[in-house]
Amino acid sequence: MKGPGTASSVRVVTLKINDHDVSARESESILEVARENGIRIPSLCQMDGLSIAGACRLCMVELKGSSRLLAGCATRVAEGMEVLTNTERLRKYRRMIVELLLAERNHVCSVCVSNGRCELQDLAFECGVDHVRFPYRSAVYQVDASHDWYRVDHNRCVLCLRCVRVCDEIEGAHTWDAMGRGINCQVVTDLKRPWGESDSCTGCGKCVQICPTGALVKHGTSAGEMEKDVHFLPYLSRMRHWE
Amino acid sequence: MMQQNRITVATTWLDGCSGCHMSLLDIDDRLFLLAEKVDFVYSPLVDAKQLPESVDVGIIEGSVSTDEDLHKAIEFRKRCKFLISLGDCAVSGNVPSMRNLFKLDDVLDRAYRENVQVNPQIPRDGVPKLLEKVQPLHGVVDVDLFVQGCPPSAEVIWNVLSELVAGRTPDPTKLTRFGA
After folding, report:
1. What pLDDT is recorded for position A238?
2. Which of A116, A130, A138 sits opposite B148 (nearest CB)?
3. CA separation for the pair B87, B21 (Å, rounded)
4. Which residue of A has its CA nearest to B96?
5. Which CATH class, in words, describes the domain spanning A12-86?
6. Spatial separation of the C-alpha atoms in residues A226 and A209, rounded to whole Å
7. Could you tell me which CATH number the domain at A91-233 has?
8. Region B80-93: what's the mean pLDDT?
9. What is the spatial distance between Cα B54 and Cα B2, in angstroms, rounded to a whole number?
C-alpha cells in the first residue's frame, strides 16, 4: 500500500455507478469509489487499512455487458465502466450469502456477547434475511478460552480473515492464520496451538476489535456486552505504511 | 382472507420460554382495541381447549423439538389460513436448537443422569418424545410470515396484528431482527 501519489502521477477515470457519472483515481476499487460517492454496497471482509481478501463476496457488483459478477473490493475501476450495485440478481445473491453464513456455523444471536453490535446481524437485517431457507448444519465447533484476556468461539466465525490480516499486516505477529479448505477452513493461532499457549501473540487485541461477529471477544462479557472499536485501524495503517 | 370485520386467531407455544406470548400481552391497553377486531379462538392465554377446524391466523412461538410440537405445527398449518412464525426459536431454532450439537442420548444423560443424585432416570411416561434434532417451524411446515426477535417487541407484534386486522400483509423485516 502506498500513500497518495503526486498530482502528475494520478490518472483519473470516469465511469458510471448505477447510471450516475463518477470520477475516480484509477488505483481505486469499485467499492472505494462507491463509498466516496455515498453509494452503499454491503461488505463484510473488507476493512479500510487491511489488504483485500475478497473472501465474503457480499460486495459483488454487476458490469453492464458482462454476465460475470465481480467483487467490488477486489476490482479496480476502469474508464467507461458501467457498474450496477443493487440489482435484483445481486440482492438475491447477497441474501443467499448471508443465509449460508448463518446456516454454516452456530450463530445464536439472542445469547451472543455481540448481540446488537454484530456486522453479520446488521447485514442480515439490511439484506432482508427474515429466516434462513437452508438447513442449519449444526456442526460442532470449539471455543478456546485459554488466552488470559480473549476468547475465540468458532461457532460464530465467518472466515472473513480480518484477524489474520490485522495480526500480520498491522501488528506484525502473524499469530492467526487459516487452516483447512472449504467447509473445513478454520482460523488458528500458532499452527493450531491453544491461543493461551501462543508464543507469537502479543495480546494487543486488534483481532478482537476488528472481528465483525462474536467470534473474537474479551473475557467477562455477557450477552450484548461486547463493544468493539475499530477506529484505531486506518490511523495505525497509515503510520505503518507512510514513507 | 380477512374480509369480515373480525378475524379469528389461534396461538400456541412449542419449545420456547413463552416470552413471545408475554410480549404479546405487553401491548397493554391495545389489547382492548385488539379485542374489538379479533377473536382468540385457541391459545395458552385463553380457556378454549380445542383448535377449531378453520382459523384465519395461526401464531406459533417456539421451535419444533418434540413429537407433540411436530403434531401441533402440522395441525396449525392444516387449519390456519395464514401461519406466523413468531420469535427467534420458531424462526431459527435459537436456544433450544443449541442441543443439536450433541446426540440426543447424551443430552438426556447430562440432564437426567450425570447431574442427578437421587433416582436418576430418563422420563418417558406422560412427556412428549424429544426429536433427534430441533428444527425451526419452517423446517417442518410452510410459513407465511416470519417475525424475528427474542422476543419480538410488543411494538412489532402490535404492528403485525394491526396490519392483519386492517386486511394487509404485514412486513416486519424493517422493524425487528435476529436477537432483537
Report:
1. 85
2. A130
3. 10
4. A108
5. alpha beta
6. 10
7. 3.30.70.20
8. 98
9. 13
B37-80 pLDDT, tens per residue?
999 999 999 999 899 999 999 999 999 999 999 999 999 999 99
Burial classification of residue A163, based on how many CB atoms lie within 10 Å of its CB (0-12 exposed, 13-18 middle, 19 or more buried) = buried
Query: Cell digits for A34?
Result: 462507491
Kindly report the nearest CA distance between residue A187 and chain B, in angstroms: 20
For A44, the 3-state DSSP assignment is coil
> Is residue A158 a contact partner of residue A58, using CB atoms and an 8 Å limit?
no
* Contact with chain B for residue A222, Cβ under 8 A: no
Please give the grid coordinates belonging to residue B174: 424493517
**pLDDT tens digits along A50-93:** 999 999 999 999 999 999 999 999 999 999 999 999 999 999 99
pLDDT of B2 reads 46
Q: How many CB pairs under 8 A join A and B?
A: 63
Please state, in angstroms and rounded to a whole number, the distance separating the CA atoms of residues A155 and B40: 40
In chain A, residues with a C-beta closer than 8 Å to the C-beta of B180 are 116
CB atoms inside a 10 Å sphere around CB A135: 11
Query: Domain-by-domain residue ranges, chain A?
Result: 12-86, 91-233
Indicate if A91-233 has the same CATH topology as A12-86: no
Nearest-CA distance from B36 to chain A in Å?
A: 30
Q: At what angle do helices B154-165 and B30-37 cross, to 10 degrees?
A: 30
The contacts of residue B14 (CB under 8 Å, 6+ apart) are B60, B61, B62, B63, B64, B65, B66, B69, B72, B73, B89, B90, B137
Q: How far is CA A139 from CA A234, B12, B63, in A?
A: 36, 30, 19
- H or E segment at A15? strand A12-17
Contact with chain B for residue A203, Cβ under 8 A: no
* Option in B93, B133, B173 nearest A130 (CB): B173
The complex scores an ipTM of: 0.93
What distances in angstroms separate CA B50 from CA A154, B60, B68, B72, one per listed residue?
45, 16, 15, 12
Domain annotation for chain B: domains and CATH numbers: 7-168 (3.40.50.700)
Closest C-alpha among A79, A37, A83, A80 to residue A59 = A83
Do the Cβ atoms of B148 and B178 come closer than 8 Å?
Answer: yes
Give Cα separations from A113 to A120, A161, A185, A225 (angstroms). Answer: 13, 20, 23, 5
For residue B108, CA distances in Å to A109, B122, B129, B133 come to: 25, 7, 11, 13
- Per CB-CB distance under 8 Å, the chain A contacts of B88 are 109-110
Q: Distance between CA atoms of B27 and B127, rounded to whole angstroms?
A: 33
